[in-house]
Amino acid sequence: MTATExxxxxxxxxxxxxxxxxxxxxxxxxxxxxxxxxxxxxxxLGTAALVAIVVGSGIQATxxxxxxxxxxxxxxxxxxxxxxxxxxxxxxxxxAHFNPAVTLAEWWTARRGGPGVTPREVAVYVPxxxxxAIAGAVLADAMFGEPLVKWSTHDRSAGHLLLGEVVATxxxxxxxFGLARTDRLRFAPVAVASYIGAAYWFxxxxxFANPAVTIGRAFTDTFAGIAPASVAGFVxxxxxxxxxxxxxxxxxxxxxxxAAE
Length: 261
What we know:
Elements (H helix, E strand, L loop, with lengths): L35 H29 L3 H27 L5 H10 L9 H25 L15 H23 L6 H15 L8 H7 L10 H25 L9
Helix pairs in contact: 1-2, 1-4, 1-7, 2-6, 3-4, 3-5, 3-8, 4-7, 5-6, 5-8
């Protein structure tokens, strides 16, 4: 599942530019895969940076203003820009999943022989993402002088929040794999970051949509934290969201038939 861009030509008499190499994006596996160690490192570092951005910007926001709306605006804005940069940077290496939900969805879609991650790669990617998320939360706490590990006390177990996670995750999967089905993954850095930024505001849960990030955010008792007791419910609903998202992809982007002549 890679995206290719058309080669642009110059004016009359000019030689065409060299073709642009295909660039993978979330949910996409590079055509020539780097070593598994490099891909695992990219997933770990990318997820760590993502959580550091989410948690760090949340801490910064609460120190600058007591207005919860402004805090969420600052948190979501930093996440949008940071996520777009991280996808652009690590996409060519690992596909920039940073999310077990995306990794599992790609494995599922590859079961019939299509492009995607193998079970062995899933077994490497997911622990790397979880370890990176925890490290990112600890790093953010360290940068702002917070206790390195302090379990969050932010209870997020209400039913409407769990529904929000289903919606947020299903939408993310629909977006990524819809782009893949329509050969537009080159837009993923902007599209995925924009979706997450919007979902901060239109979902009740503020769109965690990521099991690894959910686990990592339990390690910090700050603005972006989630109580450990709420983690299982969020992760469970995110997995439900994966199923719903893949079902929507199959429905909306089913192969068409050739038009009758």
